[in-house]
Write a structure and sequence with these properties.
The protein is an alpha/beta fold. It has 24 helices and 14 strands. The protein folds into 4 domains: 96 residues, Hemocyanin, N-terminal domain, CATH 1.20.1370.30; 148 residues, Malic enzyme, N-terminal domain (Rossmann fold, 3-Layer(aba) Sandwich), CATH 3.40.50; 182 residues, Rossmann fold; 70 residues, no CATH class.
Amino acid sequence: MNDNELSVFNYGVKIIHDPIRNKGTAFTEADREALNLTGLLPPRVHSPAEQELRVLGNIRNQPTDLDRYLYLISLQDRNETLFYRVVMNNIEEMMPLIYTPTVGAACQAFQHVFRRPRGFYVSARDRGNIKKILQNWPHKDARIIVITDGERILGLGDLGVQGMGIPIGKLSLYTACAGIHPKHCLPVMFDVGTNNESLLNDPLYNGLEQRRIRGEKYDALLDEFIEAAREVFPGILIQFEDFGNTNAFRLLDKYRNKLNCFNDDIQGTGAVALSGIMGAMRITGEKLADQRLLFLGAGEAGIGTADAFVAALVDDGMSVEEARGKCWFVDTQGLLTSDRDHIADHKQRFARENPPITDFTEAVNTLKPTAILGLSGQPGSFPKEVIEAMAKINKRPIIFALSNPTSKAECTAEEAYRWSKGRAIFASGSPFDAVKFGNNTHVPGQGNNVYIFPGVGLGAIVSGARVVTDEMFLAASYSLANQVSEADLSRGSVYPPLNKIREVCALIAYEVAKIAWDKGLTDLEEPEDIMAEIRKAMYLPVYPHYA
């Protein structure tokens, strides 16, 4: 075999080991001949539909959801086109496996189930060398980064580098739901250590065996990464994901007007929760301005949701001060009041003058909210007495138990409907099955950020936006709320079904891109048909032709 023949042979073998170009048993006979693959694959050529059938059978035969997750990740590692075909065609079945709630269990077990690296790791040891190592990434046209430092993974706390499952999962959803090509997606773990003792004592832990760095060293390392990423991947969009409260708010404030970025836990959660409240208004017939919100949890998700709610009220003509007065918070110290000795910066704008209340049930009975929103990560914190109190105060109480994963939900769908005698308007962060109560079947809405962030990202990428603004997230909320059908509302769901997610994302992307062009936030020329441009940019899992 001469050098030229060897090159052709190696080319074919490289393709079957490249997850983006591999077709598995779907390589045609012509492909196999052209790539010298004859004999290296089983002789029968299968259609993509037949491959999908095999994959679904294998997934459904796995004993646990974690095993199903691992099977899917293994498929993604060897054949991304088939992986995305399976996910897109079966989104309602697959999303709970590749993201919440199963991804939480996967992150917790990450060091013990680790098989093959995926994504990019930047650690504190890389200081001064980040630009050089970023050039090791094989896909030179990365357009979006999801980055985490692993300090607050879902409601599970500090998982260090085991949190890499979150950027991987988020970017899988960017592709499956918004059609951003896999080669444009870059998951990043920003490893600055962990304060989780069990991980530090685990000989199989994959991250730095040190406690988290803070302050100037942390900031200098992140600054270096961001500058390097912008140089290596011009125009890159950066999504901050699952950073702890210590860093999340200040990093968003620091970077939001300087580069193309957003924080999904603050802005994405806020947008999707606001949309759910808007949907609830279509059920109750009430006005947004008449709502009184009581939050359990004053972290990123809670404050982000309150900010989004305030933005919507201000957009409707209310003053900022009056709008903030519609929001009350209960945190680990009780009702958030202005007479506390110390109030974190991100909470101060929602601190209220009021006698102290330490019990959430008492807060409900005293403040008489129209909606309670659980973003605390404390399972069972909406007990029977809370739901019954809400049902006594409101004809249609709004109960949003939004903490993830499912094990952290403040109450279950069944509890909310049963304790409210079927009158609750319920939404959750992770999925719950439909609940039959009396003569009605209630289909709980899932207030998952997947309804927001992929479309926002797609719109920002297509438009070439220099920044992602709060106006874009507010527009995303309106767009999502408008896509809930009367049939959805009649079943009690304030979100559209997941099988419509591609259309949801496309319409949100349109709104985001239109703002970018209308406000002069991009240097790209506006196309004649923005929606056509968006749809043209959306990836479909179709195999390439080689012969």
